[in-house]
Amino acid sequence: MLHTALRHGLIGLFLITPALAAPTAEQRGKAYARANCARCHAIDRRSESPLKIAPPFRTLHQRYAIDSLEEALAEGIYTGHADMPAFELEPEQIHDLLSYLKTLE
What we know:
Layout: H1 2-21, H2 25-36, H3 60-63, H4 69-75, H5 91-103
Helix pairs in contact: 2-5, 4-5
Organism: Bradyrhizobium guangzhouense
Keywords: Electron transport, Heme, Iron, Metal-binding, Signal, Transport
Protein name: Cytochrome c
């Protein structure tokens, strides 16, 4: 009886472990920022932006309501300078990136 209960418990643990290990929206957003934005922008709470004219992500909420960036990210962000590439994100990427940006407020 104890052996069966232990086996069922272990099976249950193995089944839920991948769900517990799945990255959160904030983690996926940070990974996206690291891969696509960190070349120019500071994406954390302390560092300076590698490109001086690129605002640190931790200050974006001072310029914009973070949720208001959703439409811009969906339609594509284009800037007036050639250094920033155009970005058009998928809905899941937008959700993840905005979730991460909110952690920096």
